[in-house]
Each structure stands twice: as structure tokens, then as C-alpha cells.
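The instructor's notes for this session suggest beginning with a concrete chain rather than abstract definitions. Hand out the sequence below and ask the class to guess, before any prediction is shown, which regions might be ordered.
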Amino acid sequence: MKYGFFDDSNKEYVITTPKTPLPWINYLGSKEFFTLMSNTCGGYTFYKDAKLLRLTRYRYNDVPNDINGKYFYIKDGSTMWNPEVKIDDGTSCIFYEDSIQVTLKASNADSAAYSLNGGAETAYTDGDKIEIKAGSDNTATLRLTAKSGNNQTVMTYVFTHKMTNSSGTKIYFQKPAAWANTVNAYVYDESSSEVKENAAWPGVAMTDEGNGLYSYVLENDWSAALVIFNDGSNQCPGMMEPGFTIENNKKYTEE
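After discussion, reveal the predicted structure:
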């Protein structure tokens, strides 16, 4: 067959290429807990009910976007069944300086390599450190690969460079016509363990610049400030949405 063959002795179908026209799904499960896994490691997990109690998402027949999910590595006593690669525990994928130093980890592997932004792979050993800088889109993609015999593990991390906001940064908001004439700026920062605010909700009243344009000036330095504009009843961005990233002299609108 084009994509594999039946192995009669082991009573299984062996896929010889991942480029099947549709995902080839395998079912794993017990009495109440189930996993569906495709030949490219896509799939999802659910408890009892595949529709109502999904733990992870999956879109059937999503060709060619059969995206792989999260991996769980099985350890039997002191024996790890899979090679492992990762960045050092506790490393944040958000950084505010020009670059970030990352410690690479590898275990139970014959070899390990990394690549940045789709570039060539570079071999590394457990504990090696690399410096990562963001590209023009303020992100950098780190791909780690480990091999042990015929087994391979791949992990991908996306790092994001965020600008700090200094005292004196000024922002503007064009008030929608239906809003009240008092417009507030609620500024907050969730980059640390405690949320920092410019004031309790609804924030601080903005300055009326005329013609529906309002302004606000940051009084302190912020690491990763976000802002929500509101009049006490309406808000922008909407409820349950994160605030806008703050950029100096930027004019924000509801559109």
C-alpha cells in the first residue's frame, strides 16, 4: 500500500510515512479516560464524554494542519522511555531586555541540538547556555531536538520581547460617540506575581483634549503595562479581553 502495510504477525497496520491524506487515528483508553492520537501526534483527550468533557482540543480531518499536542513522558522507576529536551525550569518566554540567556537541558539522549527561527541545527549538551534575541516581529522561535536510538523528541518555545513603559509615556483614546464624557484609563501589569494597577477599577480619569480625544500620561515606570479604556459602563477592549499594549503617543480607537 502507498502509506504503509499490514503486519499480519503483529496484527497491526504499519505506517511508513507521515504524509497520509487524512490523519490516521489510534484509540487509547480505559473505562472512563480516553485519548485519540493521529500518526503525526495530533489528537485529544477526554473523560467519559468526547463532546462535553474534552481536556484538549482537536479538529478532525484538518488537512494539512494536523497539529501535534502536548507530550507526556513515561518513567518506569529510574528508566525514562523517551529522550527529553527542555529549557531550564522557571525560564520565562517573555523578556524585556535586548536579549535573554536560556539554559538548555537534555537527558536520556544520545544527541541534542537546537535551532533558532528555522535556522541550521547546532549540537548542545545538557546545561549549555545560549543568548536569544527577538526578530523584527519581537519574537524568536527556539526548537530543541533530542535523539535516542530510533526515538526522537522535539520541543518548541516561542520567546516574546516586550518593551518597558517609562514614566511620561503618553497615550490617546478616541471616545466612541455613544460613550459618556468621562473616560478612564485602567492601566495594569500582570508580569509579576502581584498585579500592579494605576488605580482600582475603573482607573484614572483621562484628560479631555477636545473633539472626543482623551489622553493619559503614565506616572511611573512599568514592565509590561496594558490599558483598558472605559466610561464606567462601556469598555475597550471588551470584557474578558486583555488590555491594549501601551505604546508612546499612540492613538487607540474602538475599531
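Then share the key points. DSSP finds no helices and 25 strands in the chain. Residues 206 and 216 are 5 Å apart (CA to CA).
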